[in-house]
Amino acid sequence: MSTTENGVDGGSTSASNVFAAVDIGASSGRVILGRIKDGSSATADGSVELETVHRFPNGVVELPGGLRWDFDALFAEVLAGLTAAGTAAKLQDETITSIGIDTWAVDYGLVNAAGELMAQPFSYRDDRSRAAVAPVHRKLDPARLYATTGLQFLQFNTLYQLATERDLDGLQALLIPDLIAFLLTGQRRTESTNASTTGLFDAVAGEWATEFLTALGLPKKLFPPLIEPGETVGTLLPEIATRVGLPTGTKVVAVGSHDTASAVAAVPAQDEDFAYISSGTWSLVGLELNQPVLTEASRAANFTNERGVDGTIRYLRNMGGLWLLSECQRTWGAEGFTPELADLLAAASALPPGGPQINPDDSAFIAPDNMPHRIRATVRHTGDLLPDDPVAITRCIMDSLATGYARAIADAERLADRTVDVVHIVGGGSQNRLLCQLTADTTGKKVVAGPVEATAVGNVLVQARAAGHITGGLTELRRLVVSSHELQTFTPQLSRL
């Protein structure tokens, strides 16, 4: 994907400005080469160019004990991607400066002193942690948890998962991107943006809340030391470097390893109060703040305060997302109905407004199963009816997401005492014109869509700044995003409501 719009001349690329981004979501992953062109600082005259060199599927698998990630296969794909990245760079007479890794949050692998992974990591979609919620809350009052961590309650948060574990002495928990970095470098660290999703991180102090570990009977050194985006984790182990064909001195640099943190870093906002929606498998809807909001009202509204790049706070609500539609497509495909997504959305757009809606956050939608059946059953329980028609179900999902987005943004404005002028949608959902337009309609605000690959862009920008190739804070980094991407704008159409 070339991102040199607006007449920007990319210029030549040297060995010092090529970076590998390992970007893995809950349903797919990719390894992307990022090239920073034209300049030593992030100005409107510069650009960032992405080249996807390897794509691979990802998903939960049913293994003894529950739903897990096939991490061995996942890591093999990472190595294949880094090999492809090295080959692609050599074809251009380039050398990869560093590697950054981002993935989804909350899940972890347990590693012993010898560095061995004890078992394939559980997936957050496994139901094992549900039974741990009440026992954890008997030891740690939910109000106290929130006042310290600022974390939204989700039954699969890391602390509830860990509460189900036994015999953790001598083991360390490495969150998924940290586990990948460890296998590449031999260095054990926990990147802070992902640490903030565990429920065991102090939102104000920016440190582990060790008193919570003690209260839950967990080892105080269960997690490795913290590291910030832009710091170096380590360099490739010799055997890894040989296997993927990269120099042994190649650095692995911490980025916003929670994929949403990297995505928000690449929101193309300039001198404006903005809300963001990182729209993909999940929808992360909120504001960027300088300080957490730890009030009881914020807890009651189930907002989270997670760490962002440069010490910012991602004040957001984690909502259901396009997983709902992708699971429907999977079910329809098994039944022999395989329409193009664009055709499905176009047909859904033609339906009149005012149809039935669901709560995308309903826990009934977390596990993989027959999603169309569950959506129709949920609508039926509200006293409404939804036809067994893919177009109608698709429109129901889009309307429900847009309504949820509007509610979350209004709540965030109220709780944080902020007013936003524009909503930025990044990620896969930014390509969904129906969803973007409905979001503009329901919020009554201008919506700016793009970039699609915001997570990879944010990953690359943090690496490039760490290498000294670009300078400045988030405003300067985002200026580079604006100059590099063609963005789409949607304005409210009140007649659609």
Automatic annotation (TrEMBL):
GO terms for molecular function: ATP binding; glycerol kinase activity; rhamnulokinase activity. The keyword Metal-binding does not apply. GO terms for cellular component: cytosol. Keywords: ATP-binding, Disulfide bond, Kinase, Nucleotide-binding, Rhamnose metabolism, Transferase. PANTHER family: L-RHAMNULOKINASE, SUGAR KINASE. It holds the Pfam family FGGY_C. It comes from the Bacteria. It comes from Pseudarthrobacter sulfonivorans. Belongs to the FGGY kinase family. GO terms for biological process: glycerol metabolic process; rhamnose catabolic process. Coiled coil: none annotated. Residues 275-467 form the Carbohydrate kinase FGGY C-terminal domain. The keyword ATP-binding applies. This is Carbohydrate kinase. Residues 21-264 form the Carbohydrate kinase FGGY N-terminal domain.
